[in-house]
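pls design
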């Protein structure tokens, strides 16, 4: 049922949702005072509620919607696919969309990562990469390699394996007894620069800490997992690309797989299609999700090398990679991803995004001089800053107050703690960019003076 056609009010939809839907990353009791926003439809960068109010989707609906809501080209591709094949199991069968998508993604790596394994969501992709790394070492006879390394403040998902390499207490603490501990090493977050240090200096310090661990645990570590260039869920922590170069060198030196979690930072978000391209290195595994299907359907995948693939290639089924789910490589989701790649190619998206990013950064440059704003930073189509708050109570309520005030100004924004960030879709025109920048600054002023 479409709320727009039902005559049901926003308040009625909110009440019905609260009775029946358990919303993610939410303390449900808060919705007694902070209303849910019913959404009836979307067009371009805008979402609309049943009563006609609109909201500029400045965070791409949790970083997935790259080319706007109800995109005509993705819609057309899905309608065509729906009349051909909606789903077929990928065990023992194959189909054109999954083959073409795998080939096109491999081509974007120059064939270095030539094998794609499919799943449904980012956490599942991380689980696959971790299991694949462990199993590859086991098949190679290196059975002691069972340990993983992640960065301070890292976030890689909320399933058990992914949570084990996540270093965000909010997500980890309740489930700690279920988790296999991972090694946590210094983050290259440039905000940690000491007086006189550059972001590259921080990257070197972090790499030195990584080497100390790899040396101490040599022969026991299976893989290092990183979000290249930006640790997103920890507050858009950006680091110098040098860290990736150093990490790749260290992983090679100590026989450790490098897993690049590009679930949020891939698909053009940082300025290149893969973030790793900016330092001309390839990891052993790349995890993709979120934007790969344009925000339309659940889809994730792990790309890996011929060497890893060959570690499983055998007549013995026990040496195969034993992981599956019913909707692996769903044709509709793959077709949405192919339409997304078509838009990248046809619209010269990466070059146009560089212009959009420069425009957005210029519009928000005055915030660098705001007395309560720190660490204004940008990497491609991700902009962020940290807000200095007076006391703990103010800090605790800041995300909720900012989110609510932003809605009043037709913006969908969800701060992470005291970090305000923008991750807009790749379709904003100059007028929408200006509107976003001006209103975001208005919201910040309103919340800071409340």
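designed seq:
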């Amino acid at each position: 049922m479409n709320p727009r056609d039902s005559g049901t009010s926003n308040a009625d939809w909110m009440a019905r949702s609260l009775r029946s839907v358990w919303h993610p990353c939410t303390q449900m009791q808060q919705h007694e005072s902070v209303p849910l926003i019913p959404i009836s439809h979307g067009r371009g960068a805008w979402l609309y509620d049943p009563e006609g109010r609109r909201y500029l989707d400045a965070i791409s609906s949790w970083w997935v919607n790259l080319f706007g809501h109800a995109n005509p080209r993705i819609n057309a591709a899905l309608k065509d696919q729906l009349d051909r094949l909606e789903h077929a199991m990928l065990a023992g069968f194959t189909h054109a969309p999954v083959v073409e998508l795998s080939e096109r993604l491999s081509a974007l790596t120059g064939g270095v990562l030539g094998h794609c394994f499919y799943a449904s969501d980012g956490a599942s992709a991380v689980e696959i990469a971790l299991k694949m790394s462990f199993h590859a070492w086991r098949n190679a006879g290196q059975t002691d390699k069972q340990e993983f390394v992640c960065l301070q403040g890292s976030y890689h998902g909320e399933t058990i394996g992914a949570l084990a390499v996540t270093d965000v207490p909010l997500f980890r603490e309740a489930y700690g007894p279920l988790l296999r501990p991972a090694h946590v090493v210094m983050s290259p977050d440039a905000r940690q620069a000491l007086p006189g240090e550059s972001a590259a200096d921080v990257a070197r310090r972090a790499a030195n800490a990584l080497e100390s661990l790899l040396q101490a645990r040599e022969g026991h570590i299976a893989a290092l997992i990183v979000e290249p260039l930006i640790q997103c869920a920890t507050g858009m922590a950006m680091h110098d690309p040098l860290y990736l170069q150093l990490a790749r060198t260290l992983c090679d030196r100590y026989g450790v797989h490098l897993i690049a979690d590009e679930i949020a930072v891939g698909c053009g978000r940082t300025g290149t299609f893969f973030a790793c391209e900016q330092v001309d290195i390839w990891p052993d595994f790349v995890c993709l999700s979120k934007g790969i299907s344009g925000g339309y359907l659940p889809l994730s995948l792990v790309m890996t090398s011929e060497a890893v693939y060959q570690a499983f290639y055998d007549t013995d089924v026990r040496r195969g990679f034993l992981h599956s789910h019913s909707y692996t490589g769903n044709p509709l989701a793959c077709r949405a991803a192919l339409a997304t790649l078509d838009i990248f190619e046809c619209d010269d998206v990466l070059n146009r995004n560089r212009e959009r990013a420069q425009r957005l950064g210029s519009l928000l440059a005055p915030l660098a001089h705001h007395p309560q704003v720190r660490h204004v930073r940008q990497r491609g189509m991700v902009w962020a800053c940290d807000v200095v708050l007076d006391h703990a109570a103010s800090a605790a309520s800041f995300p909720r107050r900012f989110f609510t005030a932003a809605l009043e100004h037709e913006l969908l924004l969800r701060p992470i703690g005291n970090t305000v960030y923008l991750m807009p879709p790749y379709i904003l025109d100059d007028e929408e960019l200006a509107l976003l920048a001006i209103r975001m600054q208005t919201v910040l002023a309103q919340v800071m003076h409340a």
